[in-house]
Amino acid sequence: MSFLPYGVAAWLFMIGLYGLASSENLIGMVICLAVLQSSTYVLLLAIGYRSHASAPIFADIPPGSRAVDPVV
To answer: Domain count of the chain?
Structure first.
């Protein structure tokens, strides 16, 4: 288990928080909020990552059947 993604997320969060606190103009604050938001994305990706995992694709659907059966 690597702690690098968690460190990157914390570093991005701190940079964004510092920039948000020290910025005087609105454009800088918006950019710092975007950096804060990207840190949450990195954190969520780090939490959900599984090594040697496969995509959850179900291929055992019989041919000729509808992909979605409507409920009437």
So the answer is: 1
Provide the phi-psi class of 7: left if phi over 0, else alpha when psi is between -120 and 50, else beta. alpha
User: pLDDT tens digits, residue range 15-72?
Assistant: 999 999 999 999 999 999 999 999 999 999 999 888 888 877 766 767 777 777 666 5
Q: Is the dihedral of CA 62, 65, 70, 72 positive or negative?
A: negative
Of 4, 19, 3, 15, which is closest to residue 39 (Cα–Cα)?
15
pLDDT at 70: 67
Taking each helix axis from N to C end, the angle separating 4-22 and 26-48, rounded to the nearest 10 degrees, works out to 160
* 66 inside domain: no
